[in-house]
Each structure stands twice: as structure tokens, then as C-alpha cells.
Amino acid sequence: MKLFRSTLFMVLALALSLALLAAAPGPASATEELPVKGMVTLVDLGADKCIPCRMMAPILDELKIEYKGKAAIVFLDVWKDRSLAAQYGIRAIPTQVFYDKQGREAFRHEGFLSKENIELVLTKLGVEKPKAPAK
Questions:
Q1: Catalytic residue among 21, 40, 42, 53
Q2: 58 or 17: which carries more pLDDT confidence?
Q3: Residue of 50, 76, 78, 85 with catalytic role
């Protein structure tokens, strides 16, 4: 029961902080060019200080390199630009939003997402998986 209460408290605290983030004014957003026109786009919304977000950072860095020219991989920090939470309808971080080539939202996920699962979504959206480098 004690574990349930502390978990519930953490969830409520996160929800309150996200609601405050959405309501607080922030700097102008630089996301007007998202999603990238004519390209499948993954927008990962999180924060540099969020542990699951930090776990995803190296995965996103790898994907940016591997899928360069095939898909756009973008990280946006909702704690640095507070308007993003409302703009993207964020309820929890990290949240990944996938857009098809026409710029329509095709898939959304909340929480940590593995490289393999990200690649599955990209493949379903028509992005060819890069070939493994020769060893």
C-alpha cells in the first residue's frame, strides 16, 4: 500500500508539473518547420533531466546518423520551451510523435521506446532500414 501511495504521488506530481508547464508562458517555439516536409519525422518530446529521456538520448543520436536523409529525428525539450507541452498535447515525457511523409501524425507513444521499436514504426511508415556497416 505504501508503494502504491508513493507511486500515485509521483504520477500526480508529474501531471501537475506538466499542467503548469503547459500553462506557463515560454519562449517562442522553433517548431514551425516540423514535421519536415516530404520526410517521415520522429519528434521526441522530453527533458534533459528526465531519466527515461536521458536513456533515449543515445538511441536518438544513433538514429539521426543512421537515418540521415531518410527520416528526420528531432528532440524537443519541453522544460526549456514550455509551450511545447500544450502545442503537442503532451501528458507524459518522453512522448514520441511520428509523422508520415505528408506531415500527418501517424503514431504516438508515451514513455521509453527502444531503438528496435522506433525502427519498426519507421519501417511501417515506409522508411527503409539502413544497411549495417561492413565489418
A1: 53
A2: 58
A3: 50
Per residue in 100-110, pLDDT (tens digit) is: 999 999 999 99
Which domains, from first to last, does the chain contain? 2-124 (3.40.30.10)
Q: Is 13 a catalytic residue?
A: no
Q: Verify whether residue 53 is a known catalytic residue.
A: yes
Q: How far is the first Cα of the chain from the last one, in angstroms, to the nearest whole number?
A: 52
3-state SS, 9-43, equals: HHHHHHHHHHHHHHHCCCCCCCCCCCCCCCCEEEE
Whether the CB-CB separation of 45 and 84 falls below 8 Å is answered with yes
What one-letter code names the amino acid at 33? E
